Amino acid sequence: AKYVNTSSSESKIEPLYPEISVYERNIATYVTETHILRIDVFAIDKNDNNGYDEHLVFETLNEPRLCGTPNEWNYSSTNSITASAQYEINKFNQEILNVIRASGGNNAKRLVMVPGYACAPAPVLSNEFVLPEDPANMVGVTVYMYTPYVFAMDPKGTREYTPRMATELQNTFKQLENKFVKNGIPVYIGEYGATNKENDAD
To answer: Is 191 marked active-site?
Structure first.
């Protein structure tokens, strides 16, 4: 709480937007004690941070996924396991948003970001992803962009950034724009980058 309060106070001086998120990631545990814990965290945070203006942003979950399984980083709408996990994430996004809004004050109207499975672009672009209902109409989407994976993150992947990869990246941004941005829903790129393969020219 001290760190959040310090960051939030500094954001009034510098052009910063501190974000509160919960780093419990394994969706398999969300239906047990973790569910209650996560909701309680936001219930506590609301009391400490309700006085801060729009520079303070909430994020409901961070990289929720099926940790330690073959599906941990692989999402497919045709995979009933990951599709079911996304349905559960939809529920939790809604529940957390409800707690934030119910706390009143500035929390009733501040921006709240929600992710899909593993914070990846594909899940939020799928039909399984559903934005939570929000009376304040202040919900955005969080994605992490390590696209294309074979270049950006895969240690056994390629060092060369090809025109085909550039097209893949551009298409992902275009899909996000068409589904969300053009409909007034902000998209926040929470993480992005590429691992060092000694290929600075690319």
So the answer is: yes
